[in-house]
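I am still getting used to backbone structure tokens and would like to learn alongside you. To get us started, please write out a protein record for me. Once you have written the record down, we can walk along the chain together.
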Amino acid sequence: MAKGKSIVILDGGRRLPRADILHNNKGPGLFTRFTTTQLGGMAVEATLKNTAIDPKLIGHVVMGMAAHSHRDSIYGAQGMRWRGGLPDDVPALTVARICGSGAEAISVASEMAMAGLRHDKARPLLQTGDPLVRLEELYGVRDPLYGEVADLIVDTGRQSVSALVGQLLKRLPEACRLSA
């Protein structure tokens, strides 16, 4: 890893909900008026707005894309990066897996981060033969500690977006003080 560089993983990432292009296979769906790269650009832009990360520190974009539904889909992650407001010199990778693009994009991005961390001397805990095993060990130790100090833990699991929002709205007032 180059001197003065570090790996940044965005906490606060955003994704778009699944929405049919056609409603009931008849009329235009909710996102019909947007191209693939416009939708992805919205996710990139929202991520940048919801993190404290300086966009100049972002060194790579990895985007999952299930549906190649518009002629601008050939640009994939590059178009999403550009529409999201990141400069042209930031590389972007499109992961297209139909059902599973998002999960695969996270997996690929973590492997890319791990490849960079493997040789980062500023991360002494990862200077082992298998840094991924060490990360799993650290997670096993730290996760219970994070759970003890968390105000709210929500299992996003496989519930629908509306069910998750309902759960959050129900649990937030009891877990956190909200101001009007």
In short: Residues 139 and 145 are 10 Å apart (CA to CA).
